[in-house]
C-alpha cells in the first residue's frame, strides 16, 4: 500500500508542485498501485466535469491510477493542457489533474471538486481503465466486453 502524502510529493515521480487542496483532500489516503492501461479522450470542445462524466461514461479511478500514469508519462499530455482523472475520496468524486510545466519540466498535481471546473478543448480525460486489474476471471472479462460493446454502440468509444 502507498500513502498519498509519501508518493505525491515534490521531487518524486518528476513532480514539481502539489496543490494544497490536493494535499488536504488526499493527503492521508492509502491506495494500491494499479498497472492497467486507460482509455483517454482528448476534449474536442470546452466542457465541464458533468459534461465529461456524462458524455464519456466516466468510471472512477483511484490515486494508484494517477501514480501509474505519472510513472508511465508517455500516455499524458505534455503541452500544458490538463490530464484529468476522476478519483473518489469518501463520498465525493474529485477531478484530479496533472499538468506538465515546460519551464521546470516537471508535473503539477492538483485536485478540484468535480462540480466546479471547465476544461478547455485539448485537455485529456481518462474516463476508465481498459481492463479491471482486480478480477480477470472469464465472467468479468465477458461483462467488460459487453460494456465496451455498449459504449461503442452509443458512440462513446471510437
Spatial separation of the terminal alpha carbons? 35 Å
- The poorly predicted ranges are none
Report the strand count. 10
Shape: globular
- Average residue pLDDT: 86
Secondary-structure element order, N to C: EHEHEEEHHEEEEEH
Radius of gyration: 15 Å
What does this protein look like?
This protein has one domain (2-130). The chain is an alpha+beta fold and 158 residues long. It has 5 helices and 10 strands. The chain is globular. The termini are far apart. A hairpin with a 2-residue loop joins strand 6 and strand 7 (92-101).
For this entry, give a set of tags:
single chain; alpha+beta; 5 helices; six-stranded mixed sheet; 158 residues; 30% strand; 10 strands
Summarize the structure.
By secondary structure, the protein is α+β, with helices and mostly antiparallel strands. The chain has one domain.
What order do the helices and strands come in, and which of them pair?
Elements: E1 2-3, H1 4-7, E2 15-18, H2 20-26, E3 30-31, E4 38-42, E5 47-48, H3 49-55, H4 63-71, E6 83-89, E7 92-101, E8 106-113, E9 118-119, E10 124-129, H5 138-154
Parallel strand pairs: 2-8, 6-10
Antiparallel strand pairs: 1-3, 4-10, 5-9, 6-7, 7-8
